[in-house]
Design brief:
two-stranded antiparallel sheet, about 350 residues, Trna Endonuclease, Chain: A, domain 1, 5-stranded mixed beta sheet, alpha/beta, single chain, about 45% helix, 7 strands
Length: about 350
C-alpha cells in the first residue's frame, strides 16, 4: 500500500483485497494499533451466486429437480464453497439423508463445525437467546422475542434490544423486514436470520450434531432431515421471491416487477407470503406458498379472507388487476386443477426456473 502511494504518479490505481471472518477483519481494520486502521478506501460486498448459476452446477453434477434445488438452496443459498464441499464429498447428487450424514455427521464432515468457525465462534454464546429463537421462528416480532426471553431467562429480557442491534448492525446476522407499503418507521417489523446456512444450522442441525456421541447416528440424521424439511417452508417463500426477482431482472417470461418482492402482515392477523407489484401495468400478485402441494387447496378460503382484508386496507390498489398465485415445490395435476378452479395461478419451482 505504501509503495502504491509513493508511485501514485506512475501507477493509476491499486487494489488490495481482504476477506476473512468478522473478528479477523475487525482486528486488521478497526483496531487503532493495526497497520490498516482507517486506510480502507472502499468496501465491496460480494453477492451469492444467483439461482441460474446454482442450477448450472446441478445440471453438470446432479439432477436439477425442484426438490433438490429447494433442499440445497435452503441449506447453502448461493455460497460456492458449500456446493464445492458437497461435490468433493461425492454427495451433491446423493439423496437427502446421505448428503446430511456425510456433510454434517461423520468425523471428517467438512461442514460439521462450519457454523461455529465462521459464524458463531466470536459470539461466544452471548446472543444465543435471540439467534436460536429467530432461526426457529422466522418472521418473529420484537414482542415475541421479549416473551421468549421472559419465559426462559427473565434477567436477560432487558438485553434483547441490545442483542438485536448488535446482531443486525455489527454482524449482519439478523435482518428486520417491514411489510410491503409500510413506512420505514413502522413498528410492525419482523426478524429473520439473514443467511440460509446459519438459519438452517441453528434451527435444524446444531442440536442433532451436538448429540452424535449420545444417540444412534441413523436416528440423529433422520431427526436432522425432518427439521430441515420444516425449515424449507420459509425457504420456499424466500426462493420464490428470489426467482421472481431474477426472472424479472433477466427479462424472462413471467411477472414484470417494479419493486422487490415482499410479504404483508398486520396486527389484525392478515398475512400474505408474497406481494409482487407491477406498477407500470397496475398489476398486484398475491401469493400463498406451501412446500407440499396438497396443503394449498385446503388453505384457499383462509387465504382469500386475507387477500380481501389486505385490499380493503390498500385503496391505492382498488383499480389494479389482482392476481392470486399458489406456489409449491411441485404441483400435481390435482393441486394444479384445484388452484385454477379457485381462481389462482398455479406455479411451482420447476416452472419458475424455466429458462434460467
Amino acid at each position: 500500500m505504501d509503495q502504491l502511494s509513493r508511485d501514485a504518479a506512475e501507477i493509476h490505481g491499486g487494489l488490495i483485497v481482504l476477506g476473512s471472518i468478522h473478528t479477523e477483519m475487525a482486528a486488521l481494520l478497526e483496531d487503532r494499533g493495526a497497520p490498516l486502521f482507517a486506510r480502507v478506501t472502499d468496501t465491496l460486498d460480494v453477492e451469492h451466486l444467483d439461482i441460474a448459476s446454482v442450477l448450472e452446477i446441478l445440471r453438470v453434477h446432479a439432477e436439477p429437480t425442484a426438490e433438490r434445488l429447494l433442499f440445497l438452496w435452503n441449506l447453502f443459498e448461493g455460497v460456492p464453497k458449500f456446493y464445492r464441499d458437497a461435490y468433493e464429498e461425492g454427495v451433491l447428487a446423493a439423496e437427502r439423508i446421505e448428503l446430511v450424514r456425510e456433510l454434517f455427521f461423520s468425523s471428517s464432515s467438512p461442514l460439521r463445525t462450519e457454523a461455529e468457525n465462521w459464524f458463531l465462534r466470536e459470539l461466544r454464546g452471548r446472543y444465543d437467546l435471540v439467534l436460536k429463537y429467530v432461526a426457529r421462528h422466522p418472521g418473529c416480532t420484537n414482542g415475541e422475542l421479549l416473551a421468549h426471553a421472559r419465559q426462559v431467562d427473565a434477567d436477560r429480557e432487558q438485553q434483547v434490544g441490545g442483542y438485536l442491534q448488535v446482531l443486525r448492525d455489527r454482524y449482519r446476522m439478523i435482518e428486520l423486514r417491514q411489510p410491503v407499503f409500510a413506512k420505514t418507521s413502522s413498528r410492525n417489523g419482523r426478524y429473520y436470520i439473514a443467511d440460509n446456512f446459519l438459519r438452517t444450522w441453528l434451527a435444524a442441525l446444531a442440536t442433532p450434531t451436538a448429540s452424535v456421541h449420545f444417540r444412534p447416528l441413523d436416528e440423529l440424521v433422520a431427526d436432522a432431515d425432518r427439521r430441515l424439511a420444516d425449515t424449507e417452508g420459509f425457504g420456499l417463500e424466500k426462493l420464490a421471491g428470489t426467482l421472481y426477482e431474477e426472472r424479472s431482472r433477466k427479462g424472462l417470461d413471467g411477472f414484470r416487477l417494479t419493486a422487490r418482492v415482499r410479504g404483508y402482515w398486520d396486527r389484525g392477523d392478515t398475512e400474505l407470503d408474497l406481494v409482487a407489484l407491477n406498477e407500470d401495468d397496475r398489476i398486484v400478485r398475491l401469493g400463498s406458498c406451501k412446500r407440499a402441494a396438497e396443503k394449498l387447496a385446503p388453505d384457499f378460503p383462509r387465504f382469500d379472507e386475507h387477500v380481501a382484508r389486505f385490499l380493503a386496507r390498500q385503496p391505492a390498489l382498488r383499480h389494479w388487476r389482482v392476481e392470486k398465485v399458489a406456489i409449491t415445490t411441485r404441483h400435481s395435476p390435482t393441486s394444479r386443477q384445484a388452484a385454477e378452479r379457485a381462481g389462482y395461478i398455479a406455479q411451482d419451482i420447476e416452472e419458475l426456473t424455466l429458462g434460467l
